[in-house]
Structure formats: C-alpha cells, structure tokens
From TrEMBL:
<dbReference type="InterPro" id="IPR002820">
    <property type="entry name" value="Mopterin_CF_biosynth-C_dom"/>
</dbReference>
<protein>
    <recommendedName>
        <fullName>Cyclic pyranopterin monophosphate synthase</fullName>
        <ecNumber>4.6.1.17</ecNumber>
    </recommendedName>
</protein>
<comment type="pathway">
    <text>Cofactor biosynthesis; molybdopterin biosynthesis.</text>
</comment>
<dbReference type="InterPro" id="IPR047594">
    <property type="entry name" value="MoaC_bact/euk"/>
</dbReference>
<feature type="binding site">
    <location>
        <begin position="75"/>
        <end position="77"/>
    </location>
    <ligand>
        <name>substrate</name>
    </ligand>
</feature>
<feature type="domain" description="Molybdopterin cofactor biosynthesis C (MoaC)">
    <location>
        <begin position="15"/>
        <end position="155"/>
    </location>
</feature>
<dbReference type="InterPro" id="IPR036522">
    <property type="entry name" value="MoaC_sf"/>
</dbReference>
<dbReference type="InterPro" id="IPR023045">
    <property type="entry name" value="MoaC"/>
</dbReference>
<keyword id="KW-0456">Lyase</keyword>
<dbReference type="Pfam" id="PF01967">
    <property type="entry name" value="MoaC"/>
</dbReference>
<feature type="active site">
    <location>
        <position position="133"/>
    </location>
</feature>
<dbReference type="GO" id="GO:0006777">
    <property type="term" value="P:Mo-molybdopterin cofactor biosynthetic process"/>
</dbReference>
<comment type="subunit">
    <text>Homohexamer; trimer of dimers.</text>
</comment>
<comment type="similarity">
    <text>Belongs to the MoaC family.</text>
</comment>
<feature type="binding site">
    <location>
        <begin position="118"/>
        <end position="119"/>
    </location>
    <ligand>
        <name>substrate</name>
    </ligand>
</feature>
<comment type="function">
    <text>Catalyzes the conversion of (8S)-3',8-cyclo-7,8-dihydroguanosine 5'-triphosphate to cyclic pyranopterin monophosphate (cPMP).</text>
</comment>
<keyword id="KW-0501">Molybdenum cofactor biosynthesis</keyword>
C-alpha cells in the first residue's frame, strides 16, 4: 500500500501528514465543458434565463466550490487560497451533434505544503453544476464533459501539463 498515500499501514483511510513539506507556490488549472442546445446558450448570452446572469452566478459558485473543497472531499487539507479565477469561453457554433458549449477554466493558487488540484477541479465542476441548475428549466439534456486537470505547478512532484486531449480553448 506504500504507493497509496491516503492509506495507513492497516489499509485504513487517513489524511496525509504534510507538516514536513516545504511551503511553495502552487497553482492548478482545471477545466469542464457544458454541452447544451443552441437556444440555451443564446438565452444565456442574451440574459434571458429566468434565474439571472448564469455565468456571473457560476463564476461565484466556482470560487465558493474551491473554498469548500475540504468540506466535500474527505482527505483534502483546508488551505489558505491566495487566488481563484474562473473564466468562460462560449462556443456558439453548434458541433456535429448540434450542441453548443460553455468551456470553464478554473485556476487556483496558494502558497503552502500541498497542492490545489482538487480545488481547481471542484471549482470547475461546481461552476458546471451551477450552469445546469440555472438552465435546467429550458434544457434538461445538458451534459458535462472533459472535467480534468490541465496543469499544476509547485511542490515536490513539480510541473504537470496535460498534453492536447480535451483542452479547453482559451
């Protein structure tokens, strides 16, 4: 079980002790994509969703999601986040399957002893869920895709950059 850091010698779950690790600047960026009917994206863009400004609310929800990650993911350490940035790229041209997309990028930073990958992934996921919640009255068929870590830096394991697959357009 040595390769699984979140298990103790008895095979039970544990929160990893990061006390001896050096504090370094840590940055992670994750993405999520919400696919929807063209009419749904048009309503978002024109501010015609009854619940309000979809992307503004999703942006705030993503920030809150990053901050609440240790409340949702049991083995995550509570971190002092120094920055959370959520951005959106709308793809109005329908794809082959007739759907449009909202691409979400979430970048989270901290200076500490453990990384912020889970916070970035949670931020992107919560933003996507918020878009669904705000638009479900007009499009229950929306779906989420390409939720993944795009990059991370800092810490002992160094830098990771996802190669090509599923990368959101910036």
């Amino acid at each position: 079980m040595a390769e699984f850091t979140h298990f103790n010698e008895s095979g039970r779950a544990r929160m990893v002790d990061v006390g001896a690790k050096d504090s370094t600047e840590r940055v992670a960026t994750a993405q999520a994509t919400v696919l929807m009917q063209p009419e749904t994206l048009e309503k978002i863009q024109r501010g015609k969703i009854a619940k309000g400004d979809v992307l503004a609310v999703a942006q705030v929800a993503g920030v809150l999601g990053a901050k609440k990650t240790p409340d949702l993911i049991p083995m995550c350490h509570p971190l002092l986040l120094t920055s959370v940035d959520i951005s959106f790229k709308e793809e109005s041209q329908p794809s082959r399957d007739g759907l449009c997309a909202v691409h979400i990028l979430a970048t989270v930073k901290t200076t500490g002893q453990t990384g912020v990958e889970m916070e970035a992934l949670t931020a992107a996921s919560v933003a996507a869920l918020t878009i669904y919640d705000m638009c479900k009255a007009v499009d229950r068929g929306m779906s989420f895709h390409d939720v993944c870590l795009l990059s991370k830096s800092g810490g002992k394991s160094g830098t990771y950059i996802r190669e090509g697959h599923g990368r959101a357009k910036e």
